[in-house]
Amino acid sequence: MNRKSVRYLYILRFFILLGGSVSTAWADWSAITEGTGFYTDDVGIFSATRRLSRDGDPTQPALDSKLTGQGSDFVFGPTAELANSFDNRLGTTTLDIQGSGFVYATHERYNHGALRVQAKQAFTPETSLLFRYYYSPDLYLGENEERQTGQFLLVGEEVTSHIGSVRLNQEITEGLEVKLLARYGARLYNQAYSERNTDFWTIGPHLEWKILPKVKLGLAYHYERGLADGRNQPQYEDDVSYINHYGSVDLDVELRERLSLMLAFHYERNNWTSSLEGDERNGAYENVYQGEALLAYQVTDSVKSYIGVQHSRRRENFEEEAVVNTNVGLGVMAKF
C-alpha cells in the first residue's frame, strides 16, 4: 500500500472512531456514521459519478476519456459526521463537520478522502443561511498525457479542490422551500498539469416541494463559469475553461412505513470555451446523463440500511464513443 493510501486510511479511521465514540465530553453533539460497499465497472470515473448530485460537486474537473476504462473494483465508502446546535441572538446555529472517502480494494492509487465543514444559521423556522467549505486533496484522475515538456509523457494527474459556498433557504409555504446557491472555488492540479488550474463560480436555485403527504420533489439548476490558466498559455494547447449548465430532478417516495424509494436524474452540459488552435476542446462540448435509484429501510429509529444503483453516460462531441459507468451500492447509516 502506498504512502498516500495509508495517509487517507488513517484520516478515515479517525473520523469513524470519532463519530462512533461520542463520550461525555461530546454529550451535546450528535454523530452519524455511514459505511457503503460499492461495485463499480470503471474505477476511472467512479468518483466523478458519485459526486454528480445537486448537493455534491456536480461540475467535475475535466475528465479526458483516456482516463476512463480502467477496470472494475470493489470500493468502501466510509463517512462520519459530527453536529451541534446552540441558540444565539439571531436564532439557532448548527455546526457540522464531515469526513468521507473511498477506499479501493485493488486500485489503491485512487484512494482519497474529503472534508466538509459547514455552519447553518436559522433566523426563523422558515429562513436560514448555510455556509460551507469543501476540501478534496490529491484526487488521482489517472495516467494522462502531459503537455508541458512537449513529449506527451504519461504522468499521473491529480487535482485538489477548495470550494466555498453559501445557500439561502426560505420556506415559501408549508411543504415548499426555495434555496439560492452561490459558490466559488479553485481546482489545483499537480505541476505536470498546472495549465489546468481553474477558478470557478456557481449560482443557481434549488426547490423542494412536498407535493403529496408521502412524496417530495426536488429540482435544481446551476450555472457555472470556470477559467483555467491554460487560456493564457497557448503553447500547451490545453485550455479546460468552460461554461456549465447543470439540471437535476429527484423524487422521494415513502412506499410504506420505514421503506422509501428515491429516484433521480441529472443532466450536465459543458461548453468548452477554448479558442486555442490545436486544442481538441476548441469549439467542443460535453453532455452527461445520469440516473439513479435508492431503496432505503429504516431498521430502527437510529439505523437505516439501503441499496442503490447509478448509471451514467457522458460524451464529448470530438470522441467517437460515449463513456458509461454503472455503480451498485449497499450500505448502513447509524445515528448517535
Descriptive account of the structure:
- This protein is mostly beta strands.
- The protein has helices at 3-20, 43-51; strands at 30-40, 73-88, 91-104, 112-122, 127-145, 154-173, 176-189, 198-212, 215-228, 242-256, 259-272, 285-298, 303-316, 323-335.
- A 14-stranded antiparallel barrel has the order 1-2-3-4-5-6-7-8-9-10-11-12-13-14.
- Mean pLDDT is 91; it is low at 14-26.
Order of helices and strands: HEHEEEEEEEEEEEEE
Overall morphology: globular
Strand element count: 14
- Our count of helices gives 2
Distance between the termini: 33 Å
Evaluate the radius of gyration: 21 Å
Q: Structural class of the helix and strand makeup?
A: mainly beta
Low-confidence stretches: 14-26
Q: Biggest β-sheet, characterized?
A: 14 strands, antiparallel, barrel
Strand content: over 45%
How much helix is in the residues? under 10%
pLDDT averaged residue by residue: 91
Strand line-up in the sheet with most strands: 1-2-3-4-5-6-7-8-9-10-11-12-13-14
